[in-house]
Amino acid sequence: MAGDIMKNWLEQNFFNTDGTANSVYILNSRGEIADAESWLGKPLDAVQLHQGVASWSDWLSSVSWVNKQLHDVDTPKMWSLGLIPWGANLKDAAAGSYDDKYSALAKTMVGLSSGDGPIYIRLGWEMNSKGWNPWGAAGQPDNYVGAYQHFVDQFRGVSDRFVFEWTPNINTGMSSEAFYPGDDYVDVIGIDFYYNVEWAPKDAASAFDWFVREPWGLQWQQDFAAKHGKPTAIAEWGLNADNAEFVKLVAKWALDHDMVYQNYWNSDAAFQGKLSSGQYPSASAAFVEAFGTTEVTSVMLAADEVAKALTGGYNQDLWGNGHDNVLVGNDGRNEIRGGEGNDILDGGRGADTLVGGNGNDTYYVDNAGDKVVEWANGGNGGIDTIISSIDYTLPLNVENLTLSGTASHRAIGNYHDNVIRLNDAGSYANGMSGDDLLIGGKGNDTLEGGWGNDTMDGGAGADVMRGGDGNDVYHVDNAGDTVVEWDNYGRGGNDTVIASIDYTLPINVENLTQSGDGSHRAIGNHGDNVIRLNDAGGYANGMSGDDTLIGGKGNDTLEGGWGNDTMDGGAGADVMRGGDGNDVYHVDNAGDTIVEWDNYGRGGNDTVVSSVDYTLFTTLENLRLVGTADLIGNGNRADNIMVGNAGSNRLWAGGGNDTIDGGAGADQLYGGTGKDMFVFRAGEAAGDKIMDFEAGDTIRLVGYGEGAYATLQGHDLYIHDGDQVETIHVYGAALTPDQWSFHHDAGYTLPG
């Protein structure tokens, strides 16, 4: 990301603040956090935590230990992690010898991190040193760079949530550029410096000017970061004198350069610079003035009030109660808290902080500096909505985003299942991860689902819809709508277009459903498509692929095209054309018409599945009757497979060597000419009749027990299976024992 984009992203997703975030080093202590916040009069935007580096064991286990001490602290945590502990070396790290340890630590940190936001790492800081850190890289910049890159690669291989800061010390006589690991491995460029009156100029202005103009000082940091498109931070700074002017100069520099954060060394460990203790009162007051609270008037709703609007242009806080409140700010910088109910919060024109609390809350955003803070659903945060008149990215724990106003804007989701609604100006929406619903307006919108199973409806206008990963659904209502979908190897999923117009499926989309009341054409692609028509009597063509075409209540025309297709016209008198391949036709109306190629025209081996009387015409091979009605099925001169339903059927096979299975019910079976096989299943044979048994015909008995046997008495074949006896009446040529046999399977397969 470019520097300003990364900074804004961190503000919204990590620090939860606008401007330069305020952080202090806290000695990994909960008490130090309380001490610092009491001193500042406001919560910290972040705290800096340090890992132990006494050994590999300490290097790995100390992170869990520190996290345990602060596990219920909500303040964002920035981790200072060493590349190696004492006893290890950078050369081995650069060679990949410690990659398994890096990967293990990454997994530990992801496991310890709550939520799904960024994990901020200040990695291998102050490398341009001569021995005070194990990864001090004097004389071996290449080893440092290699080690840093291995560390980042291993961490990013575990999760994409990690953000990395590269932090040299201010001028140590070594070129900081030599240790830069590359833009792909750095998100933020920090710097460390300390004002020690024992060796620095006593005058604050002179001292600070020295820090700015040093060869690798503060100005170098800004220039170097701008060149590489990175935001900047003051990762550590401190002073050991009561010098308010120096504090003011540092604060002005950080704010003027829009730095991501400044982190003060509020400790006497290793450097006596703690300001919250009161040992440097003037410097402490200057710090609070720069980074602490300013005077704010608080307004609280009375117990019986449900709405309040602030007036005037000064900064005020507004607190709701247990009701469903409507809380409106003024032109100043407000903090508005909703409380327990389903609240509506509108900060007004200033850069406001809106805190919803419990319930299903609605936030109005109109300023890039507005900050929304919402509880997770597990904390009863509810389902929340932001209505924004500016470009906006949803913060954590807020589910829905609606663009308002008449200007075109960008609406970006988060890791949740979002509902994003655009205005009518022709805007852009991206759901990011999660199973999102993106809804356009009357303009020409662009919708990107991102990761997850997303649903996109561009609304009126010629819209562009891109699905990305997952099983996506696109609603199309305009001939100018464009659908762009990944292929399945790119994890494009199984996708569906729902169209209220004539439509041809684009590449990488599998399914098409016609909606609305009008008759339309639905055309497939080269994939295996499922095409569903509406009830108006439409047309579907699967093109190539093994397609499933499903009609509605109207009189539909279905064409399978190339491939092994399945067609079901639904209600109505439908026309079904199979084309190439082994096709399956579902018939439920005497007016249904099937048109099939002959085999020389590559018509394949085709099957009709019918719930009405049906006669196979010349180029159809197989018939399966379904339902419970007593039906008649007629074959043709081909080698047919004919299967009855649960009713009492009459099956006429005709010419050819046919397979006839009456199914349940008392069926009459006619093999016709040819060597026919009659199939009878256990529990379904009783009462069946073979009406024209011939010398070349056979009987296949399926599913009977191991001890089953058959006896012949006159024209009747008795099948004995334990205590059960089923009788088949056989008319025609005399039946001999070698013409029947027991089997585990029917000897055929047939769809339907």
TrEMBL record:
Protein name: Ca2+-binding RTX toxin-like protein
InterPro entries: GH, GH26_dom, Hemolysin-typ_Ca-bd_CS, Hemolysn_Ca-bd, RTX_toxin/Mannuronan_C5-epim, Serralysin-like_metalloprot_C
Keywords of this entry: Glycosidase, Hydrolase, Secreted
GH26 domain mapped to chain residues: 1-300
A GO-annotated cellular component: extracellular region
Entry's Gene Ontology molecular function annotations: calcium ion binding; hydrolase activity, hydrolyzing O-glycosyl compounds
Similarity annotation: Belongs to the glycosyl hydrolase 26 family.
PANTHER family in UniProt: S-LAYER PROTEIN
Family annotation (Pfam families): Glyco_hydro_26, HemolysinCabind
Primary localization: secreted
Localization per Swiss-Prot or TrEMBL: Secreted
